[in-house]
Structure formats: structure tokens, C-alpha cells
Amino acid sequence: MESTEFDGLVLGLAEFVRRDGRYPYPELLSHALNKLALEVTAVRYPRTLTGLLALLKKPVKTWYPGSLLLKEFDSDFGLLYEEGLSEEASRYFYEELLEQGKIPEFATAATKQIAIENYQFYKILARLQELYNNGTEPERIQQEYVLLRRFLIENGYTTPAQLRKVFSKTRHIDIEEVGDFYEDCQENEPCWNCDRCGPLFKKYGKLRGIKPSACNDHRQDLPYVKKITWQQGLRRLKFGIHLRICLPGIPEMRLFHTLEELQRKYPDQLCATHLYPGIDRYDLQLRFCDGATWAVDIKDYRSPYNLAPKLTPLFGEGDLRYDESFYVIPIQRLQQREDYLEILREQATKLSSSTHLLGDAVFKERVINKIEQLQQ
Question: For 278, left (φ over 0), alpha (ψ -120 to 50), or beta?
Fold first, then answer.
């Protein structure tokens, strides 16, 4: 199997699980499974659907032809987890396939619909960036973009009334566009949200999160797990927006709130903290009162090998100029793997050594040290 066959397997599975595993198999999945049956030699290929699903839940490296394993896919994961795509398969589907435009022309309408949902946000982003770069109300556009991004991060659930309240006066973002990022909740459907990873779903009587490697304890009595009271019109973030916008945005907002608090406490040293400057050229911009500017991007990836190729120098022209730049990693990732930063630095070949790679706790210490230096 080549990468295109592996991609077809993931795309077909994405469609298959979205329609709850009903027959017939999606065409992409049938084609990929036929190829897989010929290539798998490490294990006996299953003869039943139950056996096949069990195989696809096992780590890919235990059954997929070793010479054909993709470096972009963490083979310690399976393709399925319980009744859905695994965390790594979801990441690969949305990040490596949809965002890279690798949807084949002969993909079914259902698969293309998932792609359309994923592109909705990026179409708005591209439109606002173009208006911003053309000098069309740059300050207002920046404010509206931050409003949108924060809303999607902080509101895993919403209602039409809330959308009207927040977006009724935006000039460059339509309420309908924001509404398209959400899907209806069924009446009396149990709805839960985690402050750490967003909307939850129930499987086998337990609450599950979208990214188990980052957040996997969702007992209902925990303070960060909250039940959402159903009301008419209640809507939940669509899976793709949850995975690609809300989930990575949670550590971004957490660090932003920490820096805002430091700014309120030390306004004579830390003058300003900007969120998503230049319509999301990077995540945070810090301006200190000695004129120094720091640029910060937060990255929450389980595998440093997957993250490293994506690290490039942060954009630094015009108002986005900076004196120092940082990629900041949530501390739980560093706790999961002690050599995380070492691997990241070694593998990030596109990144200059002048860009700092730090955990979020160490970055906060760096900011405090800078403040203390300015106080002297």
C-alpha cells in the first residue's frame, strides 16, 4: 500500500464511523480494504467485520506493512478507538489530509462534506486576512477575528440567541457563518463540557473527550466537567472545528489569561498583550515597556516528531516585528515525554536556533524574570 492507499483507508473510515458503521462500505474504504488484505502479512487478515474492526483498533505498527509506515502518522495508535476514529487518525484526517487538500476527486459527497465543514473557518480567515492586508478597517477586522476565535474556543455549546447577542454588530463576519460551525443537539440529549478539552460525548456509559492523550479523566463529579442544561436551539461545535480550533485554543487562552493577569499587576513593565495579532500570524504578542516585543505560538502535540516539521520562523514584518520568538508547549506534553524538547529542537530543521522552545511554566518564569529586570 502506498500513502494514497493509506489516505483512502483513513478517509473511508472517517465516513464509515460518521454514519455509525452502516453498510455498504464507502467506496474509498472498500478499495483500501481490498488492498490491505493483499498487503498485510504480519497478522492473519480478519474474515469478519468484528475481527477487522478489532484489528484496526490495534497499534498500526503491529499489523501495517513496516516498510510502508508513514512518518506523518504515529504508528503507536490504531486507526479506530471504540466506535470512532482514534485520536491520531482524527489528527491525520483533519491536518494531513483535509488541510493539505488531499481529498481525491472521486471521494463521495459525504467525505467532501466533511472537508467543506473543515474549510469553513479557513475561508473566513483568508477573507479577513486579505481585508486586513488591504488596509480595510484593520483594527476592526482584528477585533472581529479575535471575537470569533475566542467565541469558538470558549463556547463549545451555543444558542441562536447567544449568537445574535455576540455577532449582531460585526461587519465582516455573518451570524450565519458562525452558526455553521455548530450542529443541533437533540432534545433531552445529555450534553457535557470539559474546561480542558471542550464538548464531551458518551461511550459505554462514560464521558469521553476528543483527545484522550491530553485529557482523559471525565468523571462527572470533577470541577472541570460540567453538564450543559438542554434548551431549545442548543447547538454543539462540529467535530472538525472542535478538533482544529477549540481544542488547540484552550491552552492558548489559558496562557493569555495568565499574561493578562501579569499585565494588570505590572503595567509599568508589561505594557500590552495582544491575542492573535495580524489576524493570527502567531498566537500572542507581548510588548514590554523598554520597547522589547516577544512573539509567541503555542503548540499542543503529543508527538514532537509530528510537530517538528511544522515549526518555521514566526512572521515578523511591520507591526508584527519582534525581538524574541517562542514556541511554547503545554507542560503535560513535556511530562509525558522527558526528551520532548530535545527531539523537537533536533528535528525542527526549518527553525532557527534563535527561536526559543519552552514549556508553558518555564515561559511564564521567563516573562516574570523580564518584568523583574525592568523593575530594577
Answer: left
CB atoms within 10 A of CB 147: 15
Q: Where are the alpha helices (DSSP H) in 199-293?
A: 239-241, 247-265, 277-280
φ and ψ at 282, to 5 degrees? Answer: -150, 180
Query: What is the rounded CA–CA span in Å between residue 92 and residue 99?
Result: 10
Q: How far apart are alpha carbons 200 and 225 in whole angstroms?
A: 9
| Structure confidence by residue, pLDDT tens digits, 250-287 | 999 999 999 999 999 999 999 999 999 999 999 999 99
pLDDT, one tens digit per residue, over 37-51 is 888 887 888 988 889
Q: Which of 246, 248, 258 is nearest to 286 (CA)?
A: 258
What is the rounded distance in angstroms from the CA atom of residue 132 to the CA atom of residue 158? 28
How big is the CA angle at 18 (ends 16 and 23), to the nearest 5 degrees? 40
Q: How far apart are the first and last CA of the chain?
A: 63
Find the helix or strand (DSSP H, E) in which 207 lies: strand 206-208
Rounded Cα gap, residues 302 and 296, in angstroms: 19
